[in-house]
Each structure stands twice: as C-alpha cells, then as structure tokens.
Amino acid sequence: MTVYFSETTDFYKGNTPDMLLSKYGSPLFIYSEEIFRNRCREMTGMVPYEKFQVTYSIKANSNLTLLKIAHEEGLHADAMSPGEIYVLEKAGFSPEEIFYISNNVSDEEMLFAIERGIAVSVDSLSQLEKFGKLNPGGDVSVRFNPGLGAGHHKKVVTAGKETKFGINLDKADQVKEILKKHKLKLVGINQHIGSLFMDGENYLQGVRSVLETASQFKDLEFVDFGGGFGIPYRKQEGQQRLELESFGNEFAKILNEWTDSYGSKILFRSEPGRYISAESCILLGTVHVRKSNYDRLYIGTDLGFNTLIRPAMYDSHHDIEVYRQGKLVKEEAGETVDIVGNICETGDIMAHERLMPIINEGDILGVMDAGAYGYSMSSNYNNRLRPAEVLIRTDGSVNLIRRRDTLEDLLKNF
Ligand SMILES: Cc1ncc(COP(=O)(O)O)c(C=O)c1O
What we know:
There is one protein chain. By secondary structure, the protein is an alpha/beta fold. It has 2 domains: 160 residues, Lyase, Ornithine Decarboxylase, Chain A, domain 1 (Beta Barrel), CATH 2.40.37.10; 179 residues, TIM Barrel (Alpha-Beta Barrel), CATH 3.20.20.10. The chain is built from 12 helices and 19 strands. The strands form 2 sheets. Strands 1, 11, 12, 13, 14, 15, 16, 17, 18 and 19 form a 10-stranded mixed sheet that branches. It has an 8-stranded parallel beta barrel with strand order 2-3-4-5-6-8-9-10, surrounded by 4 helices. β8, α9 and β9 form a beta-alpha-beta unit. The longest helix has 19 residues. Bound molecules: pyridoxal-5'-phosphate. Pyridoxal-5'-phosphate binds next to α11.
C-alpha cells in the first residue's frame, strides 16, 4: 500500500494544490507550520541530558519566517557565511545564539563574526593562526575530523579521509601550540561527519571519538557533534523514521559517562538541518507535456533543477504525488516515466524511470520532503524565476512567506 504523506499528515489542511497554485503561481514551495514545529520539538526533546542545545543548520532552509519559528521553539543556529549571520540577526537570533562554522575564509569574514561577538569555529591550523592574529586572547572552537565519515552521497560526507573539512585528530598538539602562542582559549570542539544517516551508530561512534579528543583539553564549555539526522525520503514504500528515543538515550548515556570523568557538566550541541525542515515542505509544479522520445515516456513540468537540485546533484529520491482537480490521484500502478523540468540540460530530471499513476497534461505534481536544500540551493539558472514560498499555518490559514522572483529581479544587480 502506497503511503501518501500529504494525506496522512493532513498537510494541506483544507487548502487544495490547485487553489494554492492559482493564487500563488507554479511552481510553489508549500510549508507546514505544524510539521516544522514538530520536528524542532523532536530534536529539542531528543537527548535526556540537562544541557543539550539544538543548533539549527540554516543552510538547509533560511526562510526568515521559518527561522523566526525555529527561534520561538528555542533553537539556536549555526551559520556558514556572513550572509547567514546577517539573516539570522534579522530573524531575531542574538550573537550568543549563533555559531559561525567557518571554512577557508578571509580575514574580513572572520572579523565579521568576531566583531559581533559570535563564537567562531576554525577547521585548519592555518585558519587557527589567522584567528589568533585577528583576535589574540580570544575564545575559539576547533572543528576536528574524527577520521570517520557518513552520508547519503560522497559529496556530503564531511569527515574521514577524503574531505576538505576539519583538523585531523593527530594534530591536537599543533593546535595546542597555536592556542598558546596567541593566548587563545579553546572553549569548544565541534565536528560534522556527514549528512543523512538513518541508523545512528556512525554518529554515536563520531561522538565517542570526538569526546576522546575533548578529554585532552581542559575548561571546555561545549562540544558540538554536528548534524546529519536523516529523514525517510521513501515513505511511499514504507521507509521508517530514525528511531530517536533509543538513539537519544544511548547518546545521553555516553555524555553522562564522559562528563563524570571530565568533571564538569558542559554544554553539548547538535546541528540538524535537514531533519528540521525537509518534511515540512511540498514543492508543487505543473505538468505541461507528455511525450515519448524513442522508448522513454517523459512528463515535462515546470520543476526544473533550478527549483530543487537534489535529484540532479546527488541522484536523490523524492516521493511524488499527483493531484487532479484538487484531489490526490491514488491509482496504484500506472506507467514508468521520467519526470523532467524545463531547464536546457539533459540532466534536468526530477525522477528517473519512476512507476507513477498515469499523469496527464494539466495535472499538478507534489514533490515531497522538499524543505531542506530545496529553496536554499535553488537558482536563477536559465534566467528562470525562483518560486514563491507559502506557509500553511496550524489553523489552516495560508501566508506568503517569500514572493516569487520577478523579471526585474533578474536585472537588479546591473
Ligand atoms: C557543519 C555542518 N553542520 C550541520 C550540517 C547540517 O547537516 P544536515 O542537514 O544533514 O543535518 C551541515 C551540512 O552539511 C554541516 O556542514
């Protein structure tokens, strides 16, 4: 039996895809406030340890309204650039609630965070030197690479032997020398092993390994274990969720054992991005063409990879629902199709050889779980306009939370 996410979650709350598209235009990112808030709460309640802070990784989705909701839910945030810091400030996050995870940055970028009193993490010896020169006597955090990575695609494995991130654990002595030279205080240690795990064992392995390193440093204020918490992208086939309860209990056990030997109940953090925002969004688009080229049947839509690049970039799977005259089409098996967009590239494929119900021109498609690395990685490629974003509130009312690009926007930097 196919699972229809929009139906099981009452995603649209009485609004219909055709009503939403006729009001806001196609394609369109639709968010559910209820699901977004629930995911924030699941993360904040995950680890039964008294000082556990969830730091939302806003690279996944930095819509201002969603950031304000995350802030209301008590999340802090990490930033990867001055732009992300700027947006977080506008959303109401204070400097103490922002963690700047820098990677290969200029003096100006580092100063941007330092001058605002925002905690900075550096991830190479050279950048630690730079930080020491710019901010002697300051507080700093170091991103270590535990030598073990994880992720759904090699492009998102961010620790281990084949990635640019972090300082190898065996360089801890060199870190200490630089700290001493510039009278820096190492207040935190952080890591991020990669994105999208569905079984927490690798993450917990990374936790154990970074804590071993942390034991060598006295007076730490926090250890941050990074994000990567996966979501089931194949719900239609019955894929199960990450089991958070036993994971959180095991996590807390490791933390409590470690703090007992370290001698202080320091702060621990994780940095989920995808888990917070992915499932709160359905990307809607319209079918304009049915055509066959040789042996393939193509469904041509306005869902180009400028709207959601994950399938083209990482071969990612997103479940897709079909809507006709305001209703979900539930016909089980139909035909095998390639669902493609309107970008001038053969790689512009949203779903490859997917068994779908029969899809007609004029139907609306809903791409599930589009809330993480969706709008935030969207672009104006082919001079296409980025879609609008709307939020379905818990009471069913709908707010426009980012307008669609206009043609004038394409020229605004000239
Ligand atoms: C340093 C860091 N923290 C957190 C994240 C968030 O990862 P995810 O969205 O998989 O939770 C990323 C993503 O790559 C990252 O690079």
